[in-house]
Amino acid sequence: MTDKRVNKVVLAYSGGLDTSIILKWLQTTYGCEVVTFTADLGQGEELEPARKKAELLGIKPQNIFIEDLREEFVRDYVFPMFRANAVYEGVYLLGTSIARPLIAKRQIEIAEMTGADAVCHGATGKGNDQVRFELGYYALKPDVTVIAPWREWDLRSREQLIAFAEQHQIPIAKDKRGEAPFSVDANLLHTSSEGKVLEDPAQEVPDYVFSRTLSPEEAPDTPTVITIGFERGDAVSIDGEALSPAGLLTKLNDLGRDNGIGRLDLVENRFVGMKSRGMYETPGGTILGVAHRAIESITLDRGAAHLKDELAPRYAELIYNGFWFSPEREMLQALVDKSQETVTGTVRLKLYKGGVHVIGRESPYSLYDQDLVTFEEGAVAYDHRDAAGFIKLNALRLRTLAQRKKKLGM
Amino acid sequence: MTDKRVNKVVLAYSGGLDTSIILKWLQTTYGCEVVTFTADLGQGEELEPARKKAELLGIKPQNIFIEDLREEFVRDYVFPMFRANAVYEGVYLLGTSIARPLIAKRQIEIAEMTGADAVCHGATGKGNDQVRFELGYYALKPDVTVIAPWREWDLRSREQLIAFAEQHQIPIAKDKRGEAPFSVDANLLHTSSEGKVLEDPAQEVPDYVFSRTLSPEEAPDTPTVITIGFERGDAVSIDGEALSPAGLLTKLNDLGRDNGIGRLDLVENRFVGMKSRGMYETPGGTILGVAHRAIESITLDRGAAHLKDELAPRYAELIYNGFWFSPEREMLQALVDKSQETVTGTVRLKLYKGGVHVIGRESPYSLYDQDLVTFEEGAVAYDHRDAAGFIKLNALRLRTLAQRKKKLGM
Amino acid sequence: MTDKRVNKVVLAYSGGLDTSIILKWLQTTYGCEVVTFTADLGQGEELEPARKKAELLGIKPQNIFIEDLREEFVRDYVFPMFRANAVYEGVYLLGTSIARPLIAKRQIEIAEMTGADAVCHGATGKGNDQVRFELGYYALKPDVTVIAPWREWDLRSREQLIAFAEQHQIPIAKDKRGEAPFSVDANLLHTSSEGKVLEDPAQEVPDYVFSRTLSPEEAPDTPTVITIGFERGDAVSIDGEALSPAGLLTKLNDLGRDNGIGRLDLVENRFVGMKSRGMYETPGGTILGVAHRAIESITLDRGAAHLKDELAPRYAELIYNGFWFSPEREMLQALVDKSQETVTGTVRLKLYKGGVHVIGRESPYSLYDQDLVTFEEGAVAYDHRDAAGFIKLNALRLRTLAQRKKKLGM
Amino acid sequence: MTDKRVNKVVLAYSGGLDTSIILKWLQTTYGCEVVTFTADLGQGEELEPARKKAELLGIKPQNIFIEDLREEFVRDYVFPMFRANAVYEGVYLLGTSIARPLIAKRQIEIAEMTGADAVCHGATGKGNDQVRFELGYYALKPDVTVIAPWREWDLRSREQLIAFAEQHQIPIAKDKRGEAPFSVDANLLHTSSEGKVLEDPAQEVPDYVFSRTLSPEEAPDTPTVITIGFERGDAVSIDGEALSPAGLLTKLNDLGRDNGIGRLDLVENRFVGMKSRGMYETPGGTILGVAHRAIESITLDRGAAHLKDELAPRYAELIYNGFWFSPEREMLQALVDKSQETVTGTVRLKLYKGGVHVIGRESPYSLYDQDLVTFEEGAVAYDHRDAAGFIKLNALRLRTLAQRKKKLGM
């Protein structure tokens, strides 16, 4: 454990067994006042039971914080990330990574409000989430004390945890006594499952793992066609209906779930140095990502689009590694946001059994000008003869290289 | 037209009406000897009719070159590109782009063999292909004369082309008299369709455009599961059966076609400066791309994988723009190939109605070590307490920034 | 020549012989009204003679524009570029490149004011400047007609130019009759010399070429020490004296000249495809560049600094190639400027015989905290033991790779 | 201290007081056999005294390894790095960083030879060197035990160290009793000085700090002109005399020292998260870096050169951070080395009072072709009219953007 004295700690509290054990462990180990913070990021669980449980464990009412952060989550974290087309290792839409900075930020804000000197999270010592939480904490409150129970305590097995819970009168649901067959994280953007039965990357993920999407096979036999409206890079409507950020993502999640969209079986590289196999379900986000690229395809200039493409892996890595609150992420965001000023219009998509297919896009800012691409003559801006000079000068250095080869018999 | 004297020209000749017109136009305009080069890159057309047609148009037998380049195409162009996970503008697998350098290279080799001083292609003056052909020509034979009829002649309409053909006794198939509703390019990797009826990016592509894939809706209701074997970054077998590069891609194309895989409706940015809408079908390549990333996911180290990811857009842009035979493409290839030494193993995939889903991967070179990721204690290489120091030092600069903010009231 | 009808053209007019010939050529060839635009960008020539000469050549007074753009040049072009630490090919400070966009912008603005439909510049057909001018023109007025006499006319030699001048009563200074031994471009940031006698890169540049700096050997034997003040990335004072952008650069130029600073003998790669050898003198800019990096070294976070470093070559290439008015340059500028908010403070420099040596830097925003770096214990934010964990987790993937090697006998 | 049992440890042993204390501390703390490894990397100290001292401290003769690694150091570490033009944070030539991997590699090799299970270095717990050593160790021998005394022991002050030494009969030179005013590291490439009296970045470095170079002011009043010969990217001769890698760098060091070249006063960002101020002297390396860029300037194609420039900061960061033995460094090296095949020729330099000025370069592989750059007509590969088309197509997307602005009144 950390050797610092702690007076008051803000705990990221889900209301579940594990964070309840942490709550009690904080009280008994640090003898400190505990403030619980429970956030609705769209994980699909009711929050009020968390209040009851916290009270039961002796938390004062004024120390219980329960907040619905869904709109802030989508508006200020998910959407900026999608503007960048951020994808980690070619495929992962960063659903877990992007939720951590917001939780960290609110914990620190609550610490400031309540005069707490410490914060605590329930992430394990082998994963990325500990890094994401703690980089967030430190970036926002450099002198905060961070408590990471899973790295500190000597509860080494499920049995010991259960024993600790029993000893401290923490209620234990029946199905929580044994080991979970895998661990789950969820928010409005995605659900991830990993560990235990999922660890062998050679083995197909068993069907009961999925909680958020129908399988493509179960999805309807007829496609669903939708139109997503964008303004300045952000989705703002579905089929003409204006929606709030969280409302829109919720709707896309429903559409994605029904059409078997967004499952991903991945072996990824963790920031802490090992590989891990994850199973992700990102139904709405998968649709959103395809749609955003499509609206960009007609509204972004090539120079802007290619620069974004080259920097997107870097941006994604920063978020994956937990550097949301870093100058370099903010610099990249400034670059990305600068490009989105005209990313406005609509994209039509066909959703079908796991697939998201673009079938049309329109924009008042479209840079696609039919006159320029028709194969007939007539367009003023493009003269076929220009192409000859363009090619000649682009070829010049290659010709020079070839002449050198010839001259030197290389 | 170019103002150079031309004695002998090697024409990239498909045997179709357009290149037959070009052939005749070369003879009449330049008064030069024409060598025809017809390559099988897997476009799915018989080549022998091209020989007949060339003979009919007065080409001497020794000047008719017909070659099956499918193995070379896949082995030396497609596979190296897939090692790089090259994707243009986030989605396009570069099916047309990658075929041009090989055609250019063979044209130049035939020019050297036959003593020709010029080469000629049938690409239009508004597209990328003219650039790709000509950069290839110049890079390999810097003093070659390049003839690009579509930029040179004054045949301004379909009617004029047909009139020219009739005037020179070029046989015209009935269905070639009118305008084609769109233009098509095909090879073993893909089929592209663009122009005319496809030009409005707001309009869905009509179904008759697709020639290479079933639609997802028409594909079978049961998934197909396959296993692809890789060696040093290249696919070498399907379901345990060793296959040549072209054999393998052909097989993947069949699998892809049957399962509705690889259709892409795209608005892309051409090198020559305008946007264009293309409809691509890349059935086997789509499967291959997913599989290659999956085998890399367990055999490539994070540092290698992320460096590749950051450079892939650049590599893709080089190929799209026609710079295959450039020092920078070769440098990037050296970097990529260095990483592929251990990219060996098998990937299991489920193909279903347009989707390619990874369900397992195995490798003797796997870097995925289950002992390291299990959530229990015991693994020697990873100590939970290390994470604390790791995070602390990664956070140090962020804390310093935060302290500055605090100190200065920023 | 361009086949478009031209009514009125805005000519970038220096008042020298060459642009006077162009002026007359425009009148005689296009029969159009000519508007002259002469800008003071600090090239060190008086502008009023240009007015006289224009009048002499028949330009109406209201069509003669003479402007002092020095402040705008430094403030809106030079300084933003230095914020990015832009250096082309490792050494060139882009002195010529950065002046072109401003000239192009003013020409277009004058064209809009005067109702001109064309613009004209005097850059040759082999250099980069034609590209920079014309990309600027087109980016700001897409329908403008561009006249580039050196690419259009048939005046093929110095003799023909002189003959044309004589024929049209253009006054010819005696020393302009013969060929110049090399060509020169100058503005407040630099003077470049290239061509003719300078073309052989194996030959040392003869001393008479330099006009802007003493040679290091001639410079004083005692160093000059100065202090430059920065605010938000821009230099604002020298030795405590606040100066306007142009005033500051002028002062730095004097200091640089006197101390033999800023000469550069370079072989560079032109955008148009060939190599060229240039001789540059950038006295003040060389000092400014060193100073800017020094103030950044204590005020910029590592993440910000390294991201800038990785993007600086790209930014420099864009400016060199003429893409100042492009979305991607503006996006990069947004990224750079975001980082400069705290780049405020002072840098002390020793100037001595060609060298610029940083000897001190201070800032209220300094991130350099002596407590953190002393080799003794005590600093709270840094615990030696953290380093062990930091290293262990950074090493984890390398150890996994090594274990694989060992296991497989690789 | 590490909780592992250690039987035999290979210590990086300089023979100085600090590593002698470490030696004894290892014996007394771990009760293990100690193997000393003392390498000549050109630090300018005799090695035989280290043997005597090791024997005196009880090391068996067969456990004393003293090696001259200068040639290997320059050939296999310094030169590959200079091929990449690696510069950290715009200015630092990585003189300390590049020596660490070689020492780590030899320690591990000696560990394998002697059956040692541990290695030990004398780097402090706050610097980069601990990271560089240990990443090297782990990358080459994943199961090695690493001992870092400065992070482990409880000797907290100079007094305690001296007391420990006295207690264990370690001879103490008089000038080592007190604190050194700053710490020094040296090898054939450079000497660094940092810490203590140098820590305030606002204060000029006092003159007695420099050990490796004359000051520019003291350097001769007449320039020295030299010619460096390169083959495939590596320097091979000076003034026509072929030299071994270490011989050549030694000679350049002499030339640099005499001419006051290579001093650098820098605030840099350490990998461990803090800023530090260092004083570097890199006399020969500074000359070599300038010369290498100059020979590249005529032998490298633009595409190759710019790709290298964009990747150089990344490559430098990897070396600075200690990732020499990583896949990504090796991949970048493959890319760099691929480009160096034709980097052969000679560069003429003028060395003068701290400055390194290129005055000429020649190569049989030169891509600089005078015919192409002269301002007169005649060169076949370059037609002025091509420039018009080149510019037009490069401008096309900018014009489209401008048209959009106009149309929408943006």
From TrEMBL, chains A, B, C, D:
Superkingdom of origin: Bacteria
GO MF annotations, alphabetized: argininosuccinate synthase activity; ATP binding
Please name the PROSITE patterns in this protein's record: ARGININOSUCCIN_SYN_1, ARGININOSUCCIN_SYN_2
Record keywords, A-Z: Amino-acid biosynthesis, Arginine biosynthesis, ATP-binding, Cytoplasm, Ligase, Nucleotide-binding
Ranges where the Arginosuccinate synthase-like N-terminal domain occurs: 8-171
Tell me where the transmembrane regions lie: none
Subcellular localization: Cytoplasm
Q: Tell me which GO cellular component terms the UniProt record holds.
A: cytoplasm
What InterPro entries does this protein map onto? Arginosuc_syn_C, Arginosuc_syn_N, Arginosuc_synth, Arginosuc_synth_CS, Arginosuc_synth_type_1_subfam, AS_cat/multimer_dom_body, Rossmann-like_a/b/a_fold
Q: Which GO terms describe its biological process?
A: argininosuccinate metabolic process; L-arginine biosynthetic process; urea cycle
> Cross-referenced HAMAP family, in alphabetical order?
Arg_succ_synth_type1
* The protein, known as: Argininosuccinate synthase
Q: What's the encoding gene here?
A: argG
